[in-house]
Every structure is written in structure tokens, then in C-alpha cells.
């Protein structure tokens, strides 16, 4: 990164974020993401995920500032010392999950997930799902509302709400968590090595249809979903040292 970084400011469509975008570009100038040294995302966690999906392939670090409802992946909005904050920021490197979903129609659809991949029942009837790990069946039939796989960065979100574990950043693990499981009653999920290949097979998909969602990308009527950590894609988020992502994840485990 150059001494005075070229910053590409990206903002959610809310009035507050758009006003911040206008003020920051007036002070620091406008720059296209491909030409920037760092991306600055203005919004909430949803917009941060949108930024990573749209521009993650560029390999540019992203410094987010919270101007939205949820800001776990964001820094506080404080525009006056932005250059100093970026210079002092601590990086957090994240690998997304790769999802490959096969549908009833025979389509094969791929997507990335920086938070989680979740399978959910589409109708009033519970889903019946078989779980294979690295080609070996580990659970013949999970009867549930759904099941999800979460990264460490995403483990504090939907995964934690479903009573899944919070994973330390850099632990090279992923969470496998059932959503409202009915059978087997005592199975509460697993913590897996990050390089584990997970395959969900939907049993009786016509009577009990299931959808798969990678972050916000939904695929309906899936029959099989394969998930693995990406070997090719990595993104870098920048955080203020006093409140970096590793500390946030740790703090979540002591909230009462």
C-alpha cells in the first residue's frame, strides 16, 4: 500500500451512508475499486458481505465503517482520522466457504459464503438430510428444520443463534450446526477441520423440499449440497487495533 493510499469508498443505499460517501469522497477523492489500494465500505454487515462478494476477487483489503443496523464486521464510523486508522489497522484474513448445489432440475449452482451456508425446509414438513464428511456418511438421517455450516467470522451470527459454537479466528475450523433438530435428539452438531468436505444429501426432496443459502444467495429445491473451504479465495478485513475481529469473537463468548 502506498504512503497515502488510494481509497475506493462504497456505500449502502441508506441516506446516512450516502451522506458519508459524499463527504468522504469530497475529502479523499473518488477511486474505482480496481484502482484502489484499499476499499472502504460504509454500511452494516450485510453491505460488508455484499462488498466482499462483489470485489473480493480483487484482493484489496477492506476497512468497514458502521452505518447500518448490525456492524460486527465493521469499525466505528469516525471520518476525521481515517488515514491514520487505516495505517494502524490490524488485518483479519478470511477464507470463504464454497457451495456447490445440485437442484431437482439438474442444475449445478456454485456460490461463496463468508458467514455460512444454510439448508432450510421449504414447506411445513421437516427436512430429512444425510450428512457425509470426506465421502463417509456420518449421519444417516437428520430430521430438522435445517442445518448450517459456518466460518469462524460467521460463527457469531446465525450459527450462534442456532446454538452452534463460536469459533476463534484463525482456528482453521468450521461449525456444523443443526437447526431445530428433531431426530437424533441429542446431536448438537460438530466442530470440523476447515479442509473437511461436507456433503448434504436431501432425502425425499419432492415431498420435503429444501433450499440452500450461501450468505444471501438462495438456491431452491436442492437435492445435494457440497461445501468446502475455498483454497483460492481469501479476503482481508482491516480493524482498529483496540477492537479487532479476534477480540470481538472472543468477547462474544463472555456476553451474558
Automatic annotation (TrEMBL):
Chief location category: cytoplasm
UniProt superkingdom: Bacteria
Keyword field contains ATP-binding: yes
Catalytic residues identified in the record: 45 (proton acceptor)
EC number from the UniProt entry: 2.7.1.23
The organism of origin for this protein: Pseudoxanthomonas putridarboris
Family of this protein: Belongs to the NAD kinase family.
Cofactor list: a divalent metal cation
InterPro entries: ATP-NAD_kinase_N (IPR017438), ATP-NAD_kinase_PpnK-typ_C (IPR017437), NAD/diacylglycerol_kinase_sf (IPR016064), NADK (IPR002504)
Binding positions for NAD(+) per the UniProt entry: 45-46, 115-116, 145, 153, 156-161, 180
Molecular-function GO terms, alphabetical: NAD+ kinase activity
The protein's name: NAD kinase
Role: Involved in the regulation of the intracellular balance of NAD and NADP, and is a key enzyme in the biosynthesis of NADP. Catalyzes specifically the phosphorylation on 2'-hydroxyl of the adenosine moiety of NAD to yield NADP.
Keywords, in A-Z order: ATP-binding, Cytoplasm, Kinase, NAD, NADP, Nucleotide-binding, Transferase
Catalytic activity as recorded in UniProt: NAD(+) + ATP = ADP + NADP(+) + H(+)
Statement: the UniProt record of this protein carries the keyword Membrane: no
Subcellular location: Cytoplasm
Amino acid at each position: 500500500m502506498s504512503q497515502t493510499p488510494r481509497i475506493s469508498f462504497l456505500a449502502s443505499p441508506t441516506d446516512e451512508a450516502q451522506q458519508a460517501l459524499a463527504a468522504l469522497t469530497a475529502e479523499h477523492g473518488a477511486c474505482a475499486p480496481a484502482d484502489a489500494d484499499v476499499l472502504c465500505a460504509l454500511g452494516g454487515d450485510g453491505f460488508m458481505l455484499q462488498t466482499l462478494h462483489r470485489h473480493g476477487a480483487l484482493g484489496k483489503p477492506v476497512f468497514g465503517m458502521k452505518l447500518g443496523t448490525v456492524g460486527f464486521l465493521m469499525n466505528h464510523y469516525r471520518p476525521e482520522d481515517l488515514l491514520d486508522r487505516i495505517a494502524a489497522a490490524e488485518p483479519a484474513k478470511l477464507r470463504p466457504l464454497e457451495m456447490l448445489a445440485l437442484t431437482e432440475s439438474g442444475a449445478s449452482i456454485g456460490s461463496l459464503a463468508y458467514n455460512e451456508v444454510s439448508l432450510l425446509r421449504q414447506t411445513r414438513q421437516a427436512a430429512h438430510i444425510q450428512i457425509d464428511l470426506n465421502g463417509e456418511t456420518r449421519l444417516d438421517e437428520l430430521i430438522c428444520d435445517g442445518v448450517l455450516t459456518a466460518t469462524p467470522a460467521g460463527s457469531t451470527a446465525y450459527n450462534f443463534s442456532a446454538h452452534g459454537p463460536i469459533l476463534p479466528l484463525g482456528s482453521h475450523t468450521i461449525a456444523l450446526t443443526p437447526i431445530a433438530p428433531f431426530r437424533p435428539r441429542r446431536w448438537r452438531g460438530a466442530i470440523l477441520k476447515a479442509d473437511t468436505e461436507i456433503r448434504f444429501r436431501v432425502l425425499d426432496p419432492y415431498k420435503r423440499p429444501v433450499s440452500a443459502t450461501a450468505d444471501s444467495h438462495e438456491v431452491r429445491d436442492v437435492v445435494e449440497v457440497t461445501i468446502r473451504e475455498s483454497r483460492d479465495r481469501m479476503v482481508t478485513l482491516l480493524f482498529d487495533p483496540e477492537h479487532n475481529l479476534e477480540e470481538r469473537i472472543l468477547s462474544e463468548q463472555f456476553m451474558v
